Amino acid sequence: MSDGTLAPARQAFKALVLRGNDTLTVTGVEKLTQYAHQGLPIVISGGTPFNLSGYNASGSAYVKTALAALVDLENVHEVPAENLSASLRSLGLTPRTRVDADRIWYTYWREDEKAEKTYVFVYNDAWDSELGLGSSSGSVTFETTGVPYFYDAWTGAIEAVREYQQTEESTVIPLSLAGNQSAIIGFHHGEAATKSGHAEALPNWHKSGSKASHSSMRQHPYDTASTKQLPLSSWTLTIESWSAPENLTADQTLSAKTNSTHQLPSLQPWNAISDSLTNTSGRGFYNTTFTWPPSDCNSEDHGWHAALDLGTLSNTARAWVNDHQLPPLDPTHAVADI
Question: In what order do the strands lie in the sheet with 282-287?
């Protein structure tokens, strides 16, 4: 606790909400009492709960007495169960992150006072969508300022956010996230921005991959500009199948490995190739070739760049182009600058 904030260096909770149907413990109510007397706002929604986990006569009596005493504190508020968010706003309790998106996004807040940085994790929860679907666009208002950067947890890259709006107290950043994709945004305090609130000019990018379209990701410059698709075809797939050894008694730790080769018109997962591969375990080696630059590329235009888009991966993948290994790929949006 610090200045009425719970876990200030972690989630930085501004308040604790206690619901009328919550089940309590004696230890939990002791902590609740401690936090309330230290200044943490406590919001009791839909009536004071008195349900205690397990039978404990003396504990029940303590809980009722302790909670009744808390109601008299200035930082303890009783509100209706309905429209809790409106009640919180009326109490001056606003979220550190406010999401305006067409799907459910979750955010997690971390502070590093020593480094003078704030980190926020944003996650697009595509729980109701099939793999590869559930992309979402929107914006997040962060209750902090400073120069914002995207932190890539897969490659370790740190890139300045090119498009955002900022006031004296908050920052608004537009985002597009693939289904189940996350973004990490770090705010560097005490650092001067070069072009705060404006998008820098971006180059034209070609994208090569198996999908005709994909979500526009503001984390990567080659996804924010208009793109041309160059579908890759004529894939050769070699599957190294791992199965149980012939003699389990003699060798229980080594798999029996067999290879099979498949010619594919487009990039496909194993279960789309053959029913016999649906339950196959092992590794797949996909290979194809393409010509660069493409025939419609203006030879006098030196602004073209290329990105390899493998779409959504059901597991993991590593990729090479001309024997050069690409950086690690985000399975939810496997795109890499090549």
Answer: 256-264, 235-243, 282-287
DSSP percent split of the chain into helix, strand, coil, nearest 5: 15, 35, 50
Residue 327 DSSP label: P
- This model's pTM is above 0.85: no
DSSP secondary structure, 240-288, as one string: EEEE--S-TTT-SSS-EEEEEEEEESS---GGGT-GGGTT--EEEEEE-
Q: Kindly write down the DSSP assignment for every residue of 156-182, as one continuous string.
A: --EEE--S-EE-SS-EEEEEEE-TT-E
Residue 154, amino acid: W
Q: Are residues 114 and 234 in the same domain?
A: no
Helix extents (H) in 219-304: 221-224
User: Could you list the residue range(s) of the whole structural domain that residue 314 is in?
Assistant: 205-337
| Structural domain total, the chain | 3
Token pair in block for residue 211: 């999908």
For 212-227, what is each residue's pLDDT tens digit? 223 333 344 444 445 7
